[in-house]
## 1
Amino acid sequence: MLKIAVLVSGGGTNLQALIDAQKAGKNPNGRIVLVVSSNSKAYALERARQHGIETAVLPRRKYATTEDYDQALLALMQEHEIDLIVLAGFMCILGSTFTRAYDRKIVNVHPSLIPSFCGDGFYGLHVHEAALAYGVKVTGATVHFVNEVTDGGQIIMQKAVEVLPDDTPETLQRRVMEQAEWEILPRTVAMICSGEIK
Ligand code: GAR
């Protein structure tokens, strides 16, 4: 049974998808034991509490450097004996101290088809604004391993989503979540826990 930590910063709908999958018995080889938020007001924390999952808040601004933040996060992961770390709308950049310590044990969900609309500055709604401004007709979501390059780790799963003519960033974000993120993130996590993805 792998112990999973989910790192969040906002609404936590991807966290909810992971919790729902676990409750539905779709991840028999993993258990979410900790939710860490970079933001004390994140609704994701409430979702975790409602399901009896331990929470921690680690605001990035309390740490002077990325290295300091990495060390604090590392200590928390080690204290809880975490095997797998899931970034689910986590809006802080991790340093190489952290990513190297958990090489191929950190996954992230990104709301575009990498290598489009990714890297520094592409997060949350900005990703969908950029996709609409460019005029792409298809976008989607990607789940990938996390290394020291922002959105640059090995791709594990992707799913395409159609862009509709009257989409706004908000409607597109919602459709990408519903049709792609909430499906491929729990599926990837379950497959890592079962050993199907190494
Ligand atoms: C999701 O769309 C996720 O893919 C994105 O933020 C949203 C968080 O929503 N993540 C990034 O942009 C990371 N680069 P949630 O809090 O409801 O899961």
## 2
Amino acid sequence: MYENIKFEVKDAIGYITIDRPKALNALNEDVLNELYDAFSKVEADEAVRCVILTGEGKAFVAGADIAQMSQMNALEGRNMMILGHKLMNYMEAIEKPIIAAVNGFALGGGCELSMACDIRIASTKAKFGQPEVGLGIIPGFGGTQRLSRLVGKGMAKYLIMTANMIGADEAYRIGLVEQIAEPEALMEAAEKVANTIISKAPIAVATAKAAINHGYDMDMKSASKFEIETFTAAFGSEDKTEGMDAFLNKRAPEFKNK
Ligand code: DAK
């Protein structure tokens, strides 16, 4: 059904794999549309509790498709930009946590795509960078904003203005990735994190994602108020009763997503 990505659901995890290895999984309009479609399926499917996004071959995503971009006029470029922003904002808005299993190059739009995920786990072979200024453009899928929010303004400027590529260790050091794994252990590491999240109360996890994402863009006072409202929603859930009862009775909780 998809031509540029693979999508399967197994044991409550939705696996989305970008599958254009000959072009190092570069993002063209079709890939962006297919990703949006797959994420909307994930969001609608109650059986899916967490998503792992990865790339086929030696790249996660080596950026927006330069061959396609080079032929675009300004209006077409703008449309592609809208598509990319729509996808990445949607990834942040959906309730299910998304883990990027960064298997190789995550450059330009690929680095931006990984930053729209909730958690990044990198293979020791991964390379990150925002090479746009070397192509005469700037990051166009939210990179100037998400990178500075993740690693701070100074480091974001350093990476974007120099277009330097960094390895997994440095990405971990600056807080761009949360874990590093050997290449052959990458998916296992991502699944371990996914399954840990899956074992927790779904409403609480979804609420935490929303509180962090929305609150981050607010001033502290508004963000605190937002946390109070979202906390109340989780506090009223049946899973809160179950989680606390399980603790008090020294048993494992059985969450029902209610
Ligand atoms: N686009 C299209 N094709 C790509 C590609 C890309 N981004 N990256 C690699 N490829 C293709 C190569 O052309 C090559 O194709 P063939 O020659 O085999 O046909 C194939 O993938 C294998 O690549 P290499 O032979 O270059 O592989 P190497 O291992 O030697 O090098 C590399 C790997 C990742 C260092 C190198 O491929 C590379 O530097 N790639 C380009 C990285 C890059 O600059 N990416 C673009 C970043 S800019 C916008 C929104 C967003 C953006 C822009 C505009 N608007 C809405 C308008 C975002 C822009 C970016 O992402």
